[in-house]
Amino acid sequence: MWERIANQVSIVGIGLLGGSIALGIRQKGFGGKIIGVARKPDTLGVALEAGQIDVGTSDLGEGVYGSDLIILATPVNTIIRQIGELGDLADPQAVITDVGSTKASIVTAAEERLVNPGRFVGAHPMAGGEASGPAAARADLFRGRPVVLTPTSETREEALGRVRRLYEKLEMKILEMTPTVHDVKVARVSHLPHALAVALVSLADTSGSMDLASSGFGDISRLAEGHPDIWTDIFLDNDKQVVSAIDQFLTELCGIKTLIESGDREALGSMLAKLATLRQAWRKAKAYDEQDSESDQGRI
Amino acid sequence: MWERIANQVSIVGIGLLGGSIALGIRQKGFGGKIIGVARKPDTLGVALEAGQIDVGTSDLGEGVYGSDLIILATPVNTIIRQIGELGDLADPQAVITDVGSTKASIVTAAEERLVNPGRFVGAHPMAGGEASGPAAARADLFRGRPVVLTPTSETREEALGRVRRLYEKLEMKILEMTPTVHDVKVARVSHLPHALAVALVSLADTSGSMDLASSGFGDISRLAEGHPDIWTDIFLDNDKQVVSAIDQFLTELCGIKTLIESGDREALGSMLAKLATLRQAWRKAKAYDEQDSESDQGRI
Questions:
Q1: Fewer CB within 10 A of the terminal residue: chain B, N end or C end?
Q2: What is the mean pLDDT of the segment spanning B260-271?
Q3: Which A residues 196-225 touch B at CB under 8 Å?
């Protein structure tokens, strides 16, 4: 089965995601060589010690040599730069994929810069957390979580099939959509929530209210601990969609504000009841998908 | 020690909070009678079976008769109504306290309506969660969490001392401030977060983005499952402070939006870094306070 996915895998960027992919494919029986590429020797050391990779290098060309599957797991703007470099370095027959949180700019770069753009498959495995680095990697990080694949008219079916099988092995729930639709949706359910967490921490601090912050604040502000550089990249790379998501959110929040100001108990109550039901339905569907992953269980 | 707190306790409203106070004081060795007051016989049945209360009644007068400590644990607007009724029903020497999420309107009602307002102590034990009802009650619900006491110039020191000792028994972190300062702060760290969760679920739904919702959305939207009636009460009772908190939040969020639009990588990055550090500091201080309570442990 693995030969229909890859014989040798290069993972460029050994952080939480790259390290977890390495652990995950090993756990699922991948027998080939796993090469890790990272800028810092320390990172390679941790990944080697943890048995995530067989070989480590900080040289991209050396790191992708001989691999038939190359997974770019660096921050978004680094992925775009590395796609430019891979044009000359990667085996033209290798399938190249990425794990970037935004897709339109990455897929566009791949189609402009790669020798063989049909063998690039944009992907976004939606897992992670505040922790980062290879030390935080887990073989089951992806289990039950969604992964979005963003093939275009250029994408070769065989390359798409190999990436699809890779994530099936990692037990992810596979979705396919265009890069732009992906960016519109993640701006609303992933990037916007991060902006909300950040804005809330800022407000709680400037208003001197932190001393009364309890579990509700904890839930909403948790994301604000995400890696600043990674999130700066994401916000700036998906800026148009994030800004439009913020604008839509401002409208939603003003609607709630107006309801509160109006004092219309019935309208406010029925809106809260409707959204509580929606959130419960989402949680139950999600819990069904992710029995084993960090879900809300025990917290509700 | 308990004789310096109460000989007989009436808990009016046997939900998550009322039931947990009953279980908590029993676990901490309170030997006197605990009377539960609830509208629904089913509620009283659950609380009696769970050993939360010794006697149950749906009649307020019967329920507070002979008690020297009366704890109002109903929704905010019900607390205000019951304060009016207690004027005639409660022993003038009884200490009356409440667990309402807002304080100014409740304390004002107490000072206007009670025979002996000096024996009323406004309190807000800050614990709970999405679950509600006596079946969700836990003896350790409050451990390590903050409780805000809101005495005024009218409040008798002896009454304040008894309520303070009650919450010390439940291992809560006691804070004192005016009712208005409490309402300003909770609007920002508790009521606003609830509004954000609700607005996000609404946006995710209307924009058709729920299929990509993952753990980040889960964190930020969890509060939206809170009890609609309870939250309608809170929003409408603390409406002025909630509206001003929403206005301040809109300003914070627009600031982030402007930074993203400006594309100023350095300014955005340093803001995210500063707020990540603030959030970490808050979590570490909080985790230190609440080793045993639901904290972020294991999620970060």
A1: N
A2: 97
A3: 196-205, 207-225
> Residue A77 falls within a domain, yes or no?
yes
Residues B173 and B188 in one domain: no
What is the percent of chain A with per-residue pLDDT over 70, rounded to a whole number? Answer: 95
Provide the residue range defining the domain that includes A234.
Answer: 182-292
Whether the model clears a pTM of 0.90, i.e. scores above it, the answer is no
In a domain, A232, yes or no: yes
Residues of chain B with Cβ-Cβ distance to A212 below 8 Å are: 126, 146, 148, 175, 182, 185-186, 189-190
Residues B66 and B167 occupy one common structural domain:
yes
Residue B11 lies in a domain: yes
Residues A282 and A239 in one domain: yes
ipTM > 0.85 for the complex: no
Cβ of A249 and B208 within 8 Å? no
- Show which of A177, A192, A210 is a domain's final residue: A177
| CA of A37 vs chain B CAs: smallest distance (Å) | 25
Fill in the DSSP letter of residue B14. Answer: -
Contacts of A268 in chain B (CB under 8 A): 232, 235-236
> Does B297 reside within a domain?
no
Same domain, yes or no: B41 and B102: yes
Q: What was the pLDDT predicted at B299?
A: 32
Which chain A residues are closer than 8 Å to B146 by Cβ? 211-212, 214
Top pLDDT among B215 and B185 is at B185
Identify the closest residue of chain B to A270 by CA–CA distance: B228
pLDDT tens-digit map of A57-112: 999 999 999 999 999 999 999 999 999 999 899 999 999 999 999 999 999 999 99
Q: In the numeric block, which tokens belong to residue B85? A: 């009724």
Q: What percent of chain A has pLDDT over 90?
A: 87
Asked if B187 and B153 sit in the same domain, the reply is no
Total structural domains within chain B: 2
Q: Is B186 in Cβ contact with A212 (below 8 Å)?
A: yes
Per-residue pLDDT of A165-220, as tens digits, reads: 999 999 999 999 999 999 999 999 999 999 999 999 999 999 999 999 988 899 99
